[in-house]
Design brief:
The chain is of the alpha/beta class. The protein has 14 helices and 18 strands. The N and C termini lie far apart (53 Å). Bound molecules: xanthosine-5'-monophosphate.
């Protein structure tokens, strides 16, 4: 029997979270946009169950998307979420109305009847928090369905046809604001669909290796390595799949952190025996960046030079048919477009912007379905050293955007030292893995100090640490004062050129994580 769940995407911003929750239950799932699902896809996929996602459209309009009729004729369980519930109801003979009473955000449901979806999680009479986001709601059920939960704005908050194993929820079980949502989804995939729940990163690794081999054939693949976790995991996975057909290129733009280049080169060339081109392009980058102070200008220059160097190095190894990138799931922002026809608008974040077009290569993006922590789990599965797997994110432009104002090699050297001390103290305090991202910034401001009996007039160093889930919002990390004091003392004593340290206590928003 199949052990996979098919998620039909109607364009909700949180569809990817459904896939994630299903995977957390140890079940493999795939998301397919509604306009790419036909009878053949349904037959070939062989799902143990189907989840219909939410979406921005209204089923009260005739030309909005529907699930293929076959979905309800396959004799497998179906769970409709929000829009998914509404289209299921409409397609099976019930009705949906656009309501004056819209519900957005936190709401409470009353469980009115036991059903398999709630089994062991919620009982009749329970009042439970959920997350709603809807204007329309179901107002008449198709034959065979009954209401199993209600809310103030949605009298049909959860519905069930237990005989057919069809369920619908008006709320979103996939988001964290529905505290019992994960358990409900687990009930659906395990108890109702009968999936075994033994999908693991090890099986993902095997599947991906097969897929990469099929995609690449005898072609050559080039992969930009930055030393970050995503590109490192891509490189190791590809190497396992296609060995010497892979060449990695590591471009040192002179704005990497202390010891970074050595670490990357040693790991990939010596430990993994991966073809690795290490190009020291620091003269070129620092030369072009001289006297540039505008942050966006810095990014543009670095982006363009990176492509130039990458292209040169790719030519030297005889070109490549494919470019491998560490694109992650959150980078694939929009899933489906209804407006403007059937085309699917997928907005990819290209780690190496512009390269695929210029170099006429196809993309290999084996991490597209994963979230950052899943990439880390895959890295561990591949035996990648923990130094790489649990690294904080590091921006492509590197220290360039942590030196506001003019960038010089001298300033980069000063910052590298301060940053290394700061991270060393964070590691010694056992805090590295509790923090999402931490780094030092060298300010263009000089202040007066006194060291020994002498006057100093040196730079200010700002240190920053934040916690975040996806980098979109962030809170500053509440270090104990004695820790901050220790870091400041070490930086001022050990780094020539800095005589004052400040701690950045700005959250995002209104700040950003980086200073530029
Ligand atoms: P901000 O500063 O926008 O940063 O709050 C959010 C996350 O993105 C990283 N970042 C970048 N990464 N190129 C990158 O590859 C960039 O130009 C860039 N700018 C910011 C930043 O380090 C943080 O993790």
């Amino acid at each position: 029997m199949s052990d996979n769940i098919l998620i039909i995407d109607f364009g909700s911003q949180v569809t990817q979270l459904i896939a994630r929750r299903v995977r957390e239950a140890g079940v493999y799932s795939e998301i397919v946009p509604f306009n790419q699902v036909d009878d053949e896809v349904l037959s070939n996929f062989g799902a143990a169950g189907i989840i219909l996602s939410g979406g921005p459209a209204s089923v009260t309009n005739e030309d909005t998307p529907r699930a293929p009729a076959k979905v309800f004729e396959m004799d497998i369980p179906v769970l409709g979420i929000c829009y998914g519930q509404q289209t299921m109801v409409a397609q099976m003979g019930g009705s949906v109305t656009a309501s004056d009473h819209q519900e957005f955000g936190r709401a409470f449901i009353d469980i009115t009847k036991p059903c398999a979806l709630f089994e062991g999680v919620l009982g009749q009479g329970d009042n439970e928090q959920v997350w709603m986001s809807h204007g329309d709601h179901v107002d008449a059920l198709p034959d065979g369905f009954e209401v199993v939960a209600t809310s103030e704005g949605a009298p049909f908050a959860a519905i069930a046809n237990e005989e057919k194993c069809f369920y619908g929820v008006q709320f979103h079980p996939e988001v964290v604001h529905t505290p019992k949502g994960t358990e409900l989804l687990q009930n659906f995939v395990s108890n109702i669909c009968g999936c075994s729940g033994d999908w693991t990163m090890a099986s993902f690794r095997e599947t991906k290796i097969q897929e990469i081999r099929e995609q690449v054939g005898a072609g050559k693949v080039i992969c930009g390595l930055s030393g970050g976790v995503d590109s490192s995991v891509v490189a190791v996975l590809l190497h396992e799949a296609i060995g010497d057909q892979l060449t990695c290129v590591y471009v040192d733009h002179g704005l990497m952190r202390a010891g970074e280049s050595d670490q990357v080169v040693t790991l990939f060339r010596e430990h993994y025996n991966i073809n690795l081109v290490h190009r020291d392009a620091s003269e070129l980058f620092l030369g072009e960046l001289a006297e540039v102070t505008d942050p966006e200008q810095k990014r543009k220059i670095i982006g363009k030079l990176f492509i130039d160097v990458f292209e040169e190095e790719a030519k030297k190894v005889g070109g490549a048919d494919f470019l491998a990138q560490g694109t992650l799931y959150p980078d694939v922002i929009e899933s489906v477009s209804f407006i403007g026809g059937p085309s699917v608008t997928i907005k990819s974040h290209h780690n190496v912007g512009g390269l695929p077009e210029r170099m006429n290569m196809d993309l290999v993006e084996p991490l597209r379905e994963l979230f950052k922590d899943e990439v880390r789990a895959l890295g561990r599965e591949l035996g990648l050293h923990d130094d790489f797997v649990s690294r904080h994110p590091f921006p492509g432009p590197g220290l360039a955007i942590r030196i506001p104002g003019e960038i010089t090699r001298k300033k980069a050297d000063i910052l590298r030292k301060a940053d290394a001390i700061y991270l060393d103290e964070i590691r010694k305090a056992g805090l590295y893995d509790n923090i999402w991202q931490a780094f030092a910034v060298l300010l263009p401001v000089k202040t007066v100090g006194v060291m020994g009996d002498a006057r100093t007039y040196d730079h200010v160093c700002a240190i920053r640490a934040v916690n975040s889930t996806d980098g979109m919002t962030a809170d500053y990390y509440p270090f104990p004062h004695d820790f901050l004091g220790r870091v400041a003392t070490r930086i001022i004593n050990e780094v020539r050129g800095i005589n004052r340290v400040v701690y950045d206590i700005t959250s995002k928003p209104p700040g950003t994580i980086e200073w530029e």
